[in-house]
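Go through this:
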Amino acid sequence: MIAGSRIRILLVTGAVLLTVATTLDVLAGGALRRWDDRLMLGPHGLRLTEGGWFWVWRTLVWGGQFWLVGLLVGLAALWTSLRRRSPWPAVTVGVWLVVVSVVLYLLKTAFGRTAPVSGVDLLYVAGKQSYPSGHAAYATSCLVVTAMLIGRTWATWAAHVLAVLVAIATVMLGYHWPTDSISGWAFGLLCGVAGCWALSRFAERAAARPPE
């Protein structure tokens, strides 16, 4: 338990620092943002459009589709509610999903970053929402909470591995700049930890409640 708590603290601390550092770099046009441009722009910019690896990454990126991972975590929460005969896991996850979606939308709208496919790297452009990556954020947050609801170690490892692969896939396919995906993963991890914390709090209260 102590080792698990330390790992969670390290993950959260690292995610906070990574989110802040990446965001400041993007706003200041720092080294990471210049790396974005070198990697993604120009005639030789990274953007797979065909071949076997294209379909591998194209399949993986589906793990960041909100309707898919949102449905997955919703079904896991519903199953948990039915098993525990309590509506709170499902209600908690429902509210959590709404909050995460609203915050992510506001962040993407505030930055207004253009995607690599536009051929330019600009901020504060109306209607553009590349930063942070929604695919990476939704994959990480929803998969982490789903793994917590399943309650198996293998599910936790699978969630983290798949979330990282989704973040990489968005770059390989040219959907997002690398900094979009890095910040999306870090933001998603923070949201996932917050969701797990909320669910654990309700579980603790339910366990402490005297039987009727």
